[in-house]
Amino acid sequence: MNIPGCSIEVGVTRAPVAPPPSSPAKLLTDKDRMLPLLRAMSSKSVRDCISWCTEELTGRVRGELLTALRALVDPGNVARVEFTTYDSDDGNGPHWQQERFYLHHKDGTVTLMEYPEVGEDEAFEDAYARYVDLLDEYSGLRPPLDGAHLIVDLASGEFEESSRNII
Hints:
The chain has helices at about 25-30, 30-40, 45-70, 120-140; strands at about 80-85, 95, 100-105, 110-115, 150-155, 160. By secondary structure, it is α+β, with helices and mostly antiparallel strands. The chain has a single domain (about 40-160), classed as Murine Class I Major Histocompatibility Complex, H2-DB, Chain A, domain 1. Helix 3 (about 45-70) packs antiparallel against helix 4. The model has no long low-confidence stretch (mean pLDDT about 85).
């Protein structure tokens, strides 16, 4: 059988071809395999790829952040969590406030939640640390404008970003 572009020459030794990755994820996370592919792509295609990856990561971070919030507050009594911004010291502009946020209760009341820096409940502290990391990552993926509000609906999982004051 003849395959276009391929030939077999008796007595010729060819360098082995790298085995295919065990999964597509292995290809995408292996810089040595990925760089030749990226270099062959147009700039627009690379930007599109970055955009798709960022969308996927943002969705994952939202899901993990929702889970973390549900672990920190009582979703039986709290309908939504609202975050405001603060100007970070890292020079990267506004971030979502981590230590202070508003709880919108199902009965219509709103309370300001302020978490202490040190607590005695180790499980809570671990959950809080995970939440802080995720909210910081979300700020990097979707940088908020100064004065913006982020409202997370604990039941539906919807994230709403707004520059108007809800309270």
